[in-house]
Every structure is written in structure tokens, then in C-alpha cells.
Specification:
This protein is α/β, with parallel strands linked by helices and 412 residues long. The chain is 29% helix and 22% strand. The chain contains ten helices and 15 strands. Helix 9 runs antiparallel to helix 10. The protein is globular and about 55 Å long.
Length: 412
Amino acid sequence: MPKPPADRPLLTEAPRRRRRVVPGARAWGVRLAALSGLVAVAALAVGLSLAAGGGARGHTTSKRFAAPTHHKQTPVMPAVRITVEASGDLLIHSPVWEQALADGGGRHYNFAALFKQIKPYITGVDLPLCHVETPMTPAPPTGYPIFNTPPALARAIRQTGWKACSTAATHSLDQGETGVVDTIRALDENGIRHAGTYASATAQHTPVILTIKGIKVAFLSYTELTNGIPSPRPWSVNRAENIPQILAEARRAHDEGARVEIINIHWGDEDVQAPSPFQMHLANVLTRSPYITAVVGQHVHIPQPIRKLNGKFVVFGEGNLISNQTSACCPTASQDGLIALLTIVVDAHRARVTFVHYVPIWVQHPSFVVLPVGRGLQIDPADAAELRASYVRTVAAAGRGPHLQPIPAHLP
């Protein structure tokens, strides 16, 4: 309560002269008396309250004279920047696992040796993601057309630095339900999170969410094709044709706290650089969802464009990360691929991809070492012409733009 104005000097008895009181002064005197009365009443009320509460320690503010409320402003969330890596098919043809066995001295499979040149791009980001094209079981390994990959690949995935992998792919069901379960087991034993294939309905309805720099990131995976092999169980593999499921699961991940949602789709027409009508339709639908941050994809075995749709980036196809495909069987570009590096900024309002870098890669034969083209030119001068041609093909497919650039931006 504000203090009243200072009192005027008191009038003394001498000299006893009658002082004329003007109306304004009389009004002020009345107000001063009323104000003093209110102060006294307030003081009495506070005193009674303190007495009833046992002093200052037991003080409770009366409702009539409630303490002023101090409203705290909601703290502004500082923007958080994270980088997410996504790469192409781990397509383990027979010559690939045979080379891994040779690199292991014939005693074990050393797939990690094939990825040693790209490892800095995997370990140098906040969330590295891979794509497992083929099932992994302890049975004897096989290649095309019905794949079975040694579970040692999962160990190499961990050693290279990947934290999570998509498993919904064309060949996910090549070994039936056993292949689905054994692949999941191999990844679990190596601490690799996974999405796309499942051993139970409960697992299928539990979104994969990883916490990166305090930000929850959801990773969801689906496939357009399984080479005509039906699912052994309704939950065995996520199907890209079930668009309502994708949208619902992205919303579920958001409701469980995800601020970033990355959708991985195995889709498109093999060996065709241009996105298929299905790819374009699905990408348009997904990028309109407020619960989806970006879409990345594989399957067609050659690099495809990186484009913005509805204000969001879509990496339509990263090509093969590793395979036995070359111009001897397939398009020359099947020996190419790219590693996409998505810069994502998360603030109090939204998460958005602000830039996409990508690393053109080339699979060297017959070593099957995956070479980043820029680095490859330094360590593999014998293949310089092939590396340069690969870079030109990949950049022509993926593109450039104000927020899209290859690494390196230009070859020396």
C-alpha cells in the first residue's frame, strides 16, 4: 500500500486565531483520516494473522490481503542443431561376404574392413542410420536371389558406428520368419536399434525413439516390395502401401515426445533414376504431415534426386552403399551411391532440415572397399578416372542448390 503524503505542521494554541479552512483542505483532511484508518486496519489484520500462525515462521497470507502473484515467463528453448546420416543398401552378394571372410583371415567375417574409409562420416554425426537389405541368420550364407547374410555384419555395423538401421526391404522375408527374428537378434546383440521388421505386434507398435542432444528423434521404416513373399505374421514387416499406418505411427511417435521424425522408405523402380509415380505420391503425402521431418530412401540401386516437397527434404534414393553390382550386370551407376548428411535445427516451435550435404561414394572392385570419392582420389589414383566419372553421375542425379551440396563441393 503506498505511503500517505507527509503530515502538515500542527497548529499551536497561541496565537489563538481562527484559521479559515477552505473546502479543498477539508476534503483532503477527510481523505487523510480515511487512509490512516485503512492503514490501521491492515496493520491489525496482519498482526492477528502473525499471532494466529505463531510468528513469521508459521505465517500464512490471508485471502483478503493475498500476496502479489509473480508470473514467471516460460524460458525460451535455445535452438539445437543435430546431424543425421542416412546411407544406401547394405546388399551383401556372395562375393561381398566372401571378401569379408578373406579379410578375416578365413576364420571369421570382417565386414568392418569394407567400411573403414567411410567410417569418419558415420562417427562424425550425431545420429548415423544404416539400411540392412538382407536377412542375417546363422545358416550358411547365400546371395542373389534368396539372400542370407552372416550375422557378423551386425558386428561391423556397430564397429563402423551406426546407431540404428532400417530393416524393411525387398529381401527382408527371404528367410521367412526365422530371418526376421534372427536379424533382429543379431542387431540387438550388438546394441543396434532397428525399425521396419518385428518379432511381435507389441514391437511393431513401439516406435524407435533415440535421444540426441536432449532431443527425441523417431526413426520409422517401411518397404514397397518384398519380391512377392507374403508376411509370415501381420507384424513381420511394415508396408509402404499402408499410408494411414505411416501417418499414424509418426503421430504416435510425436505423442510420445519425438521432436524429429525420420521416415525411411524402400521404394521405387529398380535402375531408374527418376522417382516413380508411387514415390512422388507417397513423398507428397508424407511431407504434408506436421509429424514428419524428412524422408530418406533406398532400393533402386542407383542414386536418385534429393528434392524439397512441401518445404521438406526427400532423399529419394541413396543407391547401393555396398554390393557386387557393376556395369557387367547393371547400370554403371549401381557402383555409385551417396551418404546423406541432414542438418536439422530444433527450436521451441518446430524441427526442420536446414541443409543437406551428401558424400558421393564408389564401391571399389574386387576389394569391395567403399570409397568416398574425394578421399578415394587421394588413396586410389589407379581408379581416378572411374572415381571422377562416379562423382559426376551422382551429383547429376542428386543435384545442387542453396541448401544442397556434395562433399567435396568440387573435385580438385
